[in-house]
Amino acid sequence: MAKRIPLVAGNWKMYKTPAEAGNFTRKLLEKFPENSSVEVIVCPPFPAIPAVALKLAESRIGWGAQNMHWEAEGAYTGEVSPPMLQALGCRYVILGHSERRIHFNETDEQIRKKMKAALSYGLRPIFCVGEDLATRDAGDAEFFCRHQLDAALMDLPWSNPEALVIAYEPIWAIGTGRTAEPADAVAMISQLRDRISSWHGAEFADRVRILYGGSVKPDSIASFMEEEQVDGVLVGGASLNLDSFIDLVQITAKIKATA
Ligand code: PEP
After folding, report:
1. Fewer CB near the last or first residue (10 Å), C or N of the chain?
2. What are phi and psi of 85, to 5 degrees?
C-alpha cells in the first residue's frame, strides 16, 4: 500500500486582510513544528496571497488559492487566471468548493474546465465533493458524490496521482459545528478511491490523497486521522486561529506517524 503524505490545508475563505495574513503567517512560522511529517498549506483570499507567499517562500509550508477561472486571460471582470496564480507561487487551488457551487452557481461543467486548466498549468487542485443533508437523509450521498467526481474528472488527462487532491466535504458539516461520522467519511472516501481505481488502476488510486472537511477542530480531528483512508483535512474556521491550526498539524503528525 502506498504511503500517502498527510495534508492539512487551511481555507481562509473571505477572512484576513494582507496585513492580518502576513502577521498570522509570521507567527505560524515561529510556532511551526520542526521536521513535521505533514504537508501544510494555507489558502488565503487573493489579495493576501503575496503577503503570505513572501513569508512562506523559504519554508516547508505551501500556499494556494480558493478559486480561479479556466482561461489564461481575457475579458472576465473580477476573475483570476491559472498563470496569475502560478506567478504568485501557488502550488494548490481549491476547486468545486460547495460555497462556490451554492453562492456563485458554479456548475459541474465549469468545475471540470477549471480542473483541466489547473492540471495543464501544474497547479494541484483540491477538488471538493459533498452532499447536502436531504441527499444524505435520502441515502443518496455516495451516488451524488460519485456523480460530482465523474463530472469533474472522468476522462480528464490525469497522469500523476499526486497531481490532485480530493476533499470529501459534506455541505451540512461545513461551518456548522457538526462533523460527519468518521465511518461515513471512510465509506465515502473508499468509494471515491474505488471509482478512481476503475479508471486508472488500483496502484494509481492508492496514491491519490483524499481529505475530509467539515467543522474539523482540534478536539475532533483525531477520530478522522486514525482512519487509514483519510489522508488529511481541509479546514475552514479552525485554520483561522493560530493555536488551533498548529494543534491540527501536530495531532495529524502524531497519529499518522504511528499509523
Ligand atoms: C471549508 O471551508 O472547506 C470547511 C471545511 O470549513 P469549516 O472547517 O469551517 O467547516
Report:
1. N
2. -70, -40
Q: What are phi and psi of 133, to 5 degrees?
A: -65, -40
Instruction: Give the pLDDT confidence score for residue 257 in this predicted structure.
Output: 86
SS3 146: helix
- The CATH number covering residue 166 comes to 3.20.20.70
Q: What is the mean pLDDT of residues 85-107?
A: 98
| Element of type H or E holding 17 | none
Catalytic residue, chosen from 39, 69, 97, 131, is: 97
Of 99, 106, 142, 169, catalytic: 169
In contact, 224 and 193? CB cutoff 8 Å: no
Answer whether residue 68 is part of any domain.
yes
Residues 147-155 have a mean pLDDT of 96
In a domain, 102, yes or no: yes
Q: Is residue 250 part of a domain?
A: no
